[in-house]
Amino acid sequence: MSTLLAFQAQLLIPSKTSNKLGLGSSSPSPLNSSLSARGCFCKISNSLSQLFEDDRRRIQLIDDDRRRIQLIDDPADQLNIPKHVALIMDGNRRWAKARGLPVQEGHKLITQKLKEICNISSKLGIQAITAFAFSTENWSRSKEEVDFLMQLFEEFFEEFMRVGVRVSAIGDRSKLPITLQKCIELTEEITKANAGLHLMIAVNYGGHYDMLQATKSIANKVKNGLLQLEDIDNTLFEQELATKCTKFAKPDLLIRTGGEQRISNFLLWQLAYSELYFTKTLFPDFGEEALKEAILSFQRRHRRFGGHTY
Fold first, then answer.
1. Which GO terms describe its molecular function (predicted)?
2. Half-sphere exposure (Cβ direction) of 161: Cα atoms closer than 13 Å
3. Cβ distance 106 to 257 under 8 Å?
4. DSSP string covering 208-270, please?
């Protein structure tokens, strides 16, 4: 404020230099006085607007810095950062169409964006990500698009052999091309010892399929005398689901990009108590700040799991 007042006073005090040089009249006319006052007022108004805008930007930068610190550093609260994030990568086709591009151009960005998200997530302390890449319903798309995606997934798994995270695939592999099945197996084998983030890619996956295959597996064990009906409970059922391959099978947070507000047959059992976050941002535009906004929303919520914490 001191800077502002000094600047205001400078504009209001008449210049002595102008009178000495004969540039100003000792008895200005009312018209000149009015124009001079109006000019000073405009200068002050513009200067005030600029100063207030600069202050607003400085405050915004401070708030952004505080927000970043809140997301990354809170050792007192172990639940502050979700351990497992489920991700529905929606909006690739719309992103491409909005730019007059073939839909394949939107899909091509999946590998790059997931590498970026994995890098950020590792730094934040997220330990598992399950990304929905291809559902059991996606076979209804054109053969051209499906064939492109199958080839893209091969390139994806080959690339993620070298990223440094553990990679697993969940879903019915039997319907995938043999070359893709072999690529998945090789990637899982090469990355199984990697510590830190565990990335699960859901390919030909559906929540209905997952629960049905778990039910059939349990029923077969009961039929063969390996289990008794009394043995079946939630824990046993979860050990038969596709997410049994990870330490944290139940996502804390589901993020869906692209603006739709549904879970689309994804992890139906596992998402029972997950926090849901929907954003209009299309997946190719979903980056670091968008991920942190989702996590900030998670941090502001009170997870009660049917009880209460207040």
1. ditrans,polycis-polyprenyl diphosphate synthase [(2E,6E)-farnesyl diphosphate specific] activity; magnesium ion binding
2. 13
3. no
4. HHHHHHHHHHHHHHHHTTS--GGG-SHHHHHTTSGGGGSS--S-SEEEE-SS--S-TTSSTTT
| Lookup result for tokens 């597996």 | 217
Check whether 308 has a pLDDT greater than 70. no
Buried b (16+ CB within 10 A) or exposed e, 229-241: eeebeeeeeeebb
Q: Is residue 271 part of a domain?
A: yes
Rounded Cα distance, 47 and 165, in Å: 53
The domain that holds 240 is classified in CATH as: 3.40.1180.10
pLDDT digits (tens, 9 = 90+) for 232-279: 999 999 999 999 999 999 999 999 999 999 999 999 999 999 999 999
Domain-embedded: residue 21: no
- pLDDT, tens digit (0-9, with 9 covering 90-100), for 25-41: 445 555 455 555 555 55
pLDDT greater at residue 53 or residue 165:
165
Instruction: State yes or no: is 55 an active-site residue.
Output: no
- How many independent structural domains does the chain possess? 1
Name the 3-class secondary structure at 55. helix
Q: Per the domain annotation, does 81 fall within a domain?
A: no
Residue 20 lies in a domain: no
Question: In angstroms, rounded to a whole number, what is the distance separating the alpha carbons of residues 280 and 260?
Answer: 8
**C-alpha triplet 133, 145, 87: angle, nearest 5°:** 15
Q: Which domain holds residue 256?
A: 87-300
Contacts of 44 (CB under 8 A, 6+ apart): 8, 11, 12
Q: Which of 90, 147, 210, 233 is catalytic?
A: 90
Where do we find the tokens 């997946």? 283
CB 119 within 8 A of CB 78: no
* 115: CB partners within 8 A, 6+ apart: 159, 160, 163
